């Protein structure tokens, strides 16, 4: 399953339920998944787990020592395992980390995001203003989720060319793009180093947690991209986990025109005929077979 499939599964699950009070109470999801939630003091880095009884009832245990925001995400993540039928594979990897995580865990994160921030409610509540720290923080508080989760959701559902990038230990781990950027063939390579000209690079190089917004050239982030155009980058660095996130956006007017092949990849511009040198290009070294 890709992200789109998982999102559709989550939206199908949500469509049958009353989510009007989901910010305050997740019990509607818990009941629909035939589950029960209990809280317990778990070890550091252990957010939760699920046990299924012989009668089919699922018992979701969450770490009471973690923040309320984190516990809400864990509940939805465990519900994703139940609904999608995916086995858990935590393997000592922090739940916030994309590095070396099993695809099942990343898929359940995507499902959990849809449950915490139902897209119809999101679209009706998100301000029409340009992205900003205040807008993203407002949406995070409104849905009881983290700043990175809200920023990722903003990028995915935005009408403007927008992307959200997650970076760990100096490398790009994940990038979510708006429909406009996907259609334009904009691409940020996973596992590549944080671009030297980016705000994210500046924030991480400072060695301190913080947030900053500034303009940078578009081709700093996107491969095979037209030069001479700028975009806005809102970046936040978390020093304790060495995690950096960036929200990238620009006006539709600043979106370079691009021709895509049938695989959705940008085609390079044809620079025209090669310069004449006076040398005939034939006969070549290859032979017709």
From TrEMBL:
<protein>
    <recommendedName>
        <fullName>IrrE N-terminal-like domain-containing protein</fullName>
    </recommendedName>
</protein>
<dbReference type="Pfam" id="PF06114">
    <property type="entry name" value="Peptidase_M78"/>
</dbReference>
<dbReference type="InterPro" id="IPR052345">
    <property type="entry name" value="Rad_response_metalloprotease"/>
</dbReference>
<feature type="domain" description="IrrE N-terminal-like">
    <location>
        <begin position="50"/>
        <end position="151"/>
    </location>
</feature>
<dbReference type="InterPro" id="IPR010359">
    <property type="entry name" value="IrrE_HExxH"/>
</dbReference>
């Amino acid at each position: 399953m890709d992200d789109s499939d998982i999102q559709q599964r989550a939206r199908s699950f949500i469509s049958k339920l009353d989510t009007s009070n989901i910010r305050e109470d997740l019990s509607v999801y818990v009941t629909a998944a035939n589950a029960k939630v209990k809280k317990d003091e778990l070890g550091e880095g252990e957010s939760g787990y699920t046990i299924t009884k012989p009668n089919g009832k699922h018992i979701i245990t969450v770490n009471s020592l973690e923040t309320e925001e984190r516990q809400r995400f864990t509940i939805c993540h465990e519900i994703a395992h139940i609904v999608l039928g995916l086995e858990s594979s935590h393997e000592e990897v922090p739940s916030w980390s994309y590095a070396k995580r099993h695809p099942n865990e990343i898929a359940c994160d995507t499902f959990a995001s849809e449950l915490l921030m139902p897209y119809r409610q999101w679209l009706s509540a998100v301000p029409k203003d340009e992205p900003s720290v205040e807008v993203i923080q407002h949406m995070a508080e409104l849905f009881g989720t983290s700043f990175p989760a809200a920023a990722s959701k903003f990028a995915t559902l935005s009408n403007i060319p927008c992307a959200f990038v997650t970076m760990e230990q100096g490398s790009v781990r994940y990038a979510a793009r708006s429909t406009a950027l996907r259609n334009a063939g904009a691409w940020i390579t996973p596992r590549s180093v944080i671009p030297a000209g980016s705000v994210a690079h500046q924030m991480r190089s400072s060695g301190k947690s913080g947030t900053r917004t500034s303009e940078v050239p578009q081709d700093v982030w996107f491969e095979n991209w037209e030069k001479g155009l700028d975009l806005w980058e809102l970046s936040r660095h978390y020093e304790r986990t060495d995690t950096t996130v960036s929200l990238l956006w620009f006006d539709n007017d600043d979106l370079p025109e691009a021709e895509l092949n049938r695989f959705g990849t940008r085609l390079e511009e044809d620079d025209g005929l090669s310069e004449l040198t006076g040398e005939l290009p034939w006969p070549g070294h290859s032979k017709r077979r």
